[in-house]
Amino acid sequence: MKLTDAERAMLDGREGKAKQKAMDLLVRYGEALGAERLVDVNNVAGTWNAGSPAMKPFAEKGMDAVFSKFNLDSDEVVETPQAEVYTCQLIHGIDTQNAHVTGVAAEAVERQKQAEKYFGRRGVAMFNTCTPYQVGNVPVRGEHCAWMESSAVVYCNAVLGARTNTEGRESTGAASITGKIPYWGFHLEENRYGTHRVEVEVEVDDMMDWGLLGYYVGEIVQEDIPVLAGLTHTPSMIKLKHFGAAAASSGGVEMYHIPGTTPEAPTLEAAFGPKKPVGTIKYGKAERKLAYDNLNSSAKDTAVDFVMLGCPHNSIEQVWTAAKMLDGKKLSPNTQLWIFTPRALRDTAELNGYGQMIRDAGAHLMSDTCPAIGRVMPKGTIVVATDSAKQAHYLPAIMKCQTWFGSVEDCINAALTGQWRGGLS
Description:
By secondary structure, the chain is an alpha/beta fold.
């Protein structure tokens, strides 16, 4: 790998032990990928948490031990330096303000609070969300980034037009203190053009249908780049985040184009650039039903124990929608409802009174984590309902539960009645 003089100085240890280990990690990583050089990054989104049981023995030695082991892959403990570039914390496993609801141990909560304080003072913005673009981290088109989390990565690439691969905790940790990442994959212009044309033959407008479309398309194209044609409605941020999360779950989609909507596809021709589509995918009534049936394949019982909203984390608009639907009503005594939103937006929701409306109905407004990431659900949960294709994809495997997928209205009705009555219109 070709290094600049500044990069070579870090690798040689002239910028300190931590940067030396970070640069060594990035060089080994880049060489394994076949990257010829590194690229400057101005924006990092990763994780610096310490609450999980695996981190306990390291946290007992101090947060430098956590950073060294889990962010630099180093057995030698080095001092954590200040972040060199704009860096934020993504979603993790613990909602420190609602541990009593999720059943997380007090010692794990305390470790997480210590990590937030320690790494926050070193320049990591503690957003604690899978949707950092909702709370201030909005890179510009063409900006090179180093982001983790599949739904965040696909939004960064496709909707914002910034450039990132799906990174890991170690590579983002190293990038945060060096401002470097291997130059490969979606950092290169030639790798960002569409591969498959998707002919959308049914109306796709509400959030549920965007989730169904993403789930079907992702399963077909896997890690390739779909280009959507035939849409009759311009999607909002909410719908795009649900489409991307679904496509990244059923497949491995990190980039897509919607001509006339996403920034790198002013036209259908521009979306494919110099390349021709390798295939055309039809999405009609039969494909829509297949996606719906697949997402609901684990569910049999209609008595719902737990309803989860907010994956990816809900926007303030989505929190308001749920609060209005719950206003003046009470949940079924047999069902719990958890609504997840970024911590900063939870504060906004509380200022607006939405949080109290949600609690008055017997539900909980939460942040920082989700059932799939935190492995947390109400005790005794057998049947779950969610508006998230991503959660419906992962929960049956991770939490061994039956999972219903449907609209926000279907899910709120299940929380109020204790019964699943959703379906395709």
